[in-house]
Amino acid sequence: MKYTALGDLRVSRLGLGCMGMSHLYTGHSIDNASAVRTLHRALDLGVTHLDTAELYGPLSNETLLGSALHGRRDDVVLATKFGLRSHTGKKAPVDSSELSIRIAVEGSLRRLQTDRIDLYYQHRVDPDVPIEDVMGTLSALVDEGKIRHVGLSEAGKGTIRRAHAVHPVAAVQSEYSLWSRDADDGTLDVLSELGIGFVPYSPLNRGLLTGKIRSLDPLDADDWRRTNPRFLPGALERNLETLREVTVVADEVSATEAQVALAWLLARDPSWSPIPGTTRIDHLEEDLGALDIVLSDAQMQRLTDIAPAVGGHHTEAQMQLFDR
After folding, report:
1. Taking Cα atoms as reference points, which of 90, 89, 83, 25 lies closest to residue 57?
2. Are 118 and 127 in contact (CB under 8 A)?
3. Which of 25, 56, 120, 176 is catalytic?
4. What pLDDT, on the 0 to 100 scale, is given for residue 85?
5. Per-residue pLDDT reduced to its tens digit, 150-165
6. Is 143 exposed, middle or buried (0-12, 13-18, 19+ CB in 10 A)?
7. Signed CA dihedral, 15, 167, 140, 58: sign only
8. Is the pTM of this model over 0.85?
9. Average pLDDT over residues 15-40
10. Is 324 domain-assigned?
């Protein structure tokens, strides 16, 4: 395993996004025993960066990790998120009021069976609560020892600067992949300037960049991806055509499409820690194989120049919650 740092948190270059073990991908959710085996295999292979959220399940993903990490808590950097569930009765989809945050953190600590959260993200920026107030609450939780570091998810450049001025931001998490490059709007430059780590989520575009999804047929009727713009009829077929360039490079380096997509991310910046998600040990081991893939400058450029995906990476309603 290779490692990097998010602030002063030492993490594996590839982490593990745990959402799919409990949330959204109905057809790929698995029983807890199988999930625990996958999590334990990840730890055995040196993965130290695990990502969850109270929203996932909801709540059950944190409970799963709490059970899986029994006796191994000190082996990992544990990241979770608050803010997309209200604990105060607020009707809006986001709630980062002090009361909601404090209720959320106590619930996460209990479900995760831990006395501290290593990296605590605001899941989405709350337009009704100034980020300075949110960071003040989180700074107090750091002082109380309940969380160690603060993160932001899908936050814009101005918000990141304002937040970091109140309390250090260790990491920003955004969707980023060959097909999702919103953070190229200058956000990555701000992170570099301020010394903030970057955690790309959905680096394999919810499985589409693996080459293993050729149609919607394997997905359950209520699998969330059926509503994702890039999986809709018409868009899916065009995106699979674009994927051919990834396949060509994969053949050149004797790797899989997933490994090439991850290797491209890893080569972009040695400080990044992408968090591909999987429920299966074989896919986990395949993903970690990306750490050994070396892409030439020409191959990196061909991948960087790949045609944009057809369709947004979230629905229009979901994108309204992004801070840009």
Report:
1. 25
2. no
3. 56
4. 95
5. 999 999 999 999 999 9
6. exposed
7. negative
8. yes
9. 83
10. no
**Contact between 271 and 197 (Cβ < 8 Å):** yes
- Domain annotation covers residue 289: yes
Answer yes or no: is 32 within a domain: yes
- To the nearest whole percent, how much of the chain has pLDDT over 90? 88
C-alpha 269/C-alpha 272 separation (Å) is: 6
Q: pLDDT digits over 9-20, tens only?
A: 999 999 999 998
Supply the CATH number for residue 280's domain.
Answer: 3.20.20.100
**Which amino acid makes up residue 60?**
S
What's the CA gap between 33 and 282, in Å, rounded?
16
Q: Tell whether 142 is covered by a domain.
A: yes
Of 159 and 92, the structure prediction assigns the larger pLDDT to 159
Radius of gyration of the chain (CA): 19
Query: In the predicted model, is pLDDT for residue 134 greater than 60?
Result: yes
d(CA 6, CA 172): 9
Task: Write out the residue range of the structural domain in which residue 175 sits.
Answer: 3-319
Q: How many domains does the chain have?
A: 1
Please give the full DSSP string across 103-154, using - where no structure is assigned: HHHHHHHHHHT-S-EEEEEESS--TTS-HHHHHHHHHHHHHTTSEEEEEEES
Assess whether the previous peptide bond of 203 is cis (omega < 30° from 0): no
Q: Is 176 tagged catalytic?
A: no
